[in-house]
Please model this.
Amino acid sequence: MNIISRRNFLQTAALTGAGLALGPSLFGKDEVVDKNWKSPHANLVSPDKKVRLAVIGCGGQGGVDANIMAGGVQFAAFADVDYDRASAWFLREPNVPRYRDYRKMLDEQKDNIDAVLIATPDHTHFPAAVMAMNLGKHVYVEKPATHTIGEARYLKALAKKTGLVTQMGNHGHAYDGCRELKEWIEAGVIGDVTEVHIWTNRPVWPQGVPNPDPEKKFEVPSTLDWNLWLGVSKYYNYNPDYVPFDWRGMWDWGTGAIGDMACHMFDPIFTAIDLRGDVKVSSESEGATEFSCPKWAKVKYEIGASKTRPKPVTFNWYEGKCRPHLKDLPDGLFKEEKDIPHTGMLYVGTKGAIIDTDDYGTRMRLLPAEKWEVFRKNRPPKKYARVPDRNARMEFIRACQGGPTPGSNFVDHSMDLTEWGLLGVLSLRLGNKTIDWDYKKGVCRGLPEANKFIHKEYRVF
Model:
């Protein structure tokens, strides 16, 4: 894809040809980071200089990310479609150039930028990342990194081709939990994983809302450029119910509860047993419309055995009012219904189970409780390297200066993880149809109507 101009954005086909091999990431088989590490990435910044960082989306999560990165960067430019939301950063860094349109910012400031932080609504992640990467800029993209599976595959290929440093903002991947779960499972603590149950209190925003009334119009705030906020999505009249937060429950801009949380809650088990491959996905839900995600949903993934999965795995996702009950779970794990946590990730194996009640994988324990008391005194040894300071944002900045490849980089991890979550979105968008996913080809077998959701059209804005 050529650089995206302010007047044109072209839908693109898959990249072809062999890409750059990125080599081992920090998630390697040593407890200590290799002191002889030599980065394979392109366009690195000298370790004695600060990374010149541009931020697309300064309000909300972008402001949080930028604040954590602040000690290691020099802010080069800010872009935000709502100057009111971004005002705190404008006041904090009054000399940093500011823009509403990220395309204009990247075009005019490209020689002053090393890396770009993208923290916009989901539908803008992909076009912003593509433009930045085509300009040779490293990118940190908030989760979910893309709005469609086609976009995820494109960004993975683009990262291979360019050799740039990439990272998705599922910051829990930098915590110890992902590595500990992998160590426990590989040590045979619960035997072979056969079932996964993950449930959340999301959505905590409206879903199941009716299609917009085209006759209903509100005045756009003077600080907001609504056309730029819509970006590549189809045009809708402005409504204060959509911004700055509740867009997450609308298909054109967000990916609903499963898209929002899969990159966090699926990550530990995806890392531990590698869920890539052909998979059958089915769903049930209530209240979805052409415009809005459902009020509640359950999604089931069925995946076969592999080198990392000695047994077939049934993977269950629950959201909204839908959650697992005693009848859905193996006997003996919970005594009463009230003992099942409000949210959780439950991994069931042939010899036991692990429960984690933190969305980011930091509160693991064995079930039943008596097993945990014995196990905690004799845990498996550490096998995989930990991220220094457990900080995904600074992991990215250090990688831009030649440090180890971030664990949730596009090539090795995060785009495949994003795809796994978006397969659930795909089944829901198809009206709860069962899909038979061909991983190698990236298509639903016998379901050509799925293509309009695997790929999408982009509005010129």
